[in-house]
């Protein structure tokens, strides 16, 4: 079934009785060529690109709950390629290019909206840092515009420019950035993978990983054992738990990151805006709700919910930046389980077990990385070699200290501790 304007019109005139399920609900087979543990955005995109780019169709995606029920459905939907560090800049540039062709590739409306991302700066030092970042983005081939305060005022007149504690000095505008519909991205990749023969197995929790003489042989699940010579672990905040089944201890901590949405209001915020002094970011959805978030809750947890002190912190940052939102009623909040690495950058690599592969540690960058993560992880699983866009995401950098990618310049250096 292909989607088109003509198809939507025809179904609307005939009672919408011709639509078929987006994917099958198959029983797991006894053996596959490859198993992907995790039915979120990264796992589904990996399966899709394995089938599309590498011709591997005897694949199963195993999800303990329902497809898209984890972090891919629990985020603020931001898509951007405004990273400033060698390695990350190239990777997210590759991801944005895939985003720009995603809907045509999947024949699915992911509601990609390149409305622009503006990062505000509030000091001379921060402005200098954004200038360096913009130069890195431009050198990578991405767009970047350094705006002064008058240009920001013209673009976003509703900000609090009179705030003496956090004055606005300007901002870095990334026009190709924006948002996409999070659950539609998961559904589009699921549908595309299913159409290419991938089995999407829901309600199938992995309880063990079978390894013999250093080689992966398959997995144990709540629906029985499944054999495979290649297994990819891509389970976001549960990475440490799943890797422990293979005897691995990862340099990863799981933390809660909250997000919020208000009641629908008339269009007022045209861009994605980030507040440089409060780690606050906000956009407006197509339904009119203000979607916003802030920093981590700063305690390790596997609970997909947050706490009130961080809610207060995020609301305070929003009111500091744009007091006009103060009367909007918050409808709901949610939490995603973030798998945080010490240097703020992800891991896409082989493990010490032959045939076992790891994709984790996405920190704040998980949703915007979905296309490139799947593309790179599929390339690694299929060929055994890292994708050039993800070559820096090695696991052993935390052991040796060589190649650490400290995006925020705040992490510890593992080889010195």
Please, could you describe this protein's structure?
This protein is an alpha/beta fold and 417 residues long. The chain has two domains: 5-75 and 183-250 and 343-416, FAD/NAD(P)-binding domain; 113-177 and 253-340, D-Amino Acid Oxidase, subunit A, domain 2 (D-Amino Acid Oxidase, Chain A, domain 2), CATH 3.30.9.10. It contains eleven helices and 20 strands. It has helices spanning 5-13, 41-54, 88-100, 102-106, 124-140, 149-155, 182-195, 239-244, 308-321, 370-383, 397-400, and strands at residues 31-32, 34-37, 59-62, 78-79, 117-121, 145-148, 170-174, 178-179, 199-201, 206-212, 215-221, 226-228, 231-233, 253-264, 272-275, 280-284, 289-300, 330-340, 347-350, 356-360. The chain has an eight-stranded mixed sheet. Helix 2 packs parallel to helix 7 (182-195) and helix 2 packs across helix 10. The mean pLDDT is 94.
Task: Reconstruct the topology from this structure.
Elements: H1 5-13, E1 31-32, E2 34-37, H2 41-54, E3 59-62, E4 78-79, H3 88-100, H4 102-106, E5 117-121, H5 124-140, E6 145-148, H6 149-155, E7 170-174, E8 178-179, H7 182-195, E9 199-201, E10 206-212, E11 215-221, E12 226-228, E13 231-233, H8 239-244, E14 253-264, E15 272-275, E16 280-284, E17 289-300, H9 308-321, E18 330-340, E19 347-350, E20 356-360, H10 370-383, H11 397-400
Parallel strand pairs: 1-12, 2-3, 2-13, 3-9, 5-15, 13-20
Antiparallel strand pairs: 4-8, 5-7, 6-7, 10-11, 11-12, 14-17, 14-18, 15-16, 16-17, 19-20
Helix pairs in contact: 2-7, 2-10, 3-10
């Amino acid at each position: 079934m292909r989607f088109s304007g003509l198809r939507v019109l025809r179904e609307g005139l005939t009672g919408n009785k011709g639509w078929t399920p987006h994917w099958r609900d198959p029983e797991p087979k006894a053996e596959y060529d490859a198993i992907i543990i995790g039915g979120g955005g990264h796992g589904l995109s990996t399966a899709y690109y394995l089938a599309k780019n590498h011709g591997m169709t005897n694949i199963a995606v195993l999800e303990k709950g329902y497809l898209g029920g984890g972090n891919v459905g629990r985020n603020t939907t931001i898509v951007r390629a405004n990273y400033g560090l060698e390695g990350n800049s190239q990777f997210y540039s590759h991801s944005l290019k895939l985003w720009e062709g995603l809907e045509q590739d999947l024949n699915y409306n992911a509601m990609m909206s390149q409305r622009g991302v503006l990062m505000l700066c509030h000091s001379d030092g921060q402005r200098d840092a954004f200038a360096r970042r913009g130069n890195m983005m431009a050198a990578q081939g991405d767009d970047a515009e350094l705006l002064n305060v008058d240009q920001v005022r013209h673009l976003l007149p509703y900000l609090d420019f009179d705030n003496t504690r956090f004055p606005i000095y300007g901002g870095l505008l990334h026009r190709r950035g924006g948002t996409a519909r999070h659950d539609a991205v998961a559904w589009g990749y699921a549908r595309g993978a299913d159409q290419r023969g991938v089995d999407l197995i829901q309600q199938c929790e992995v309880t063990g990983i079978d390894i013999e003489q250093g080689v992966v042989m398959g997995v144990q699940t709540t629906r029985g054992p499944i054999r495979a010579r290649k297994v990819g672990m891509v389970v976001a905040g549960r990475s440490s738990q799943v890797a422990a089944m293979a005897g691995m201890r990862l340099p990863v901590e799981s933390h809660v990151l909250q997000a919020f949405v208000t009641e629908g209001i008339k269009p007022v915020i045209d861009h994605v805006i980030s507040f440089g002094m409060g780690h606050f970011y906000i956009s407006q959805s197509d339904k009119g709700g203000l979607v916003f978030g802030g920093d981590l809750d700063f305690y390790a947890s596997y609970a997909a919910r947050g706490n009130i002190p961080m809610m207060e912190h995020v609301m305070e940052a929003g009111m500091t930046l744009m007091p006009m939102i103060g009367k909007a009623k918050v409808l709901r909040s949610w939490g995603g389980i973030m798998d945080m690495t010490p240097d703020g950058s992800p891991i896409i690599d082989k493990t010490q077990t032959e045939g076992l592969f790891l994709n984790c540690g996405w920190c704040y960058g998980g949703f915007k990385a979905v296309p490139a993560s799947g593309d790179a992880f599929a390339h690694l699983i299929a060929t055994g070699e890292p994708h050039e866009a993800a070559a820096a995401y090695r696991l052993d950098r935390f052991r040796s200290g060589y190649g650490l990618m400290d995006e925020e310049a705040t992490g510890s250096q593992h080889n010195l501790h």
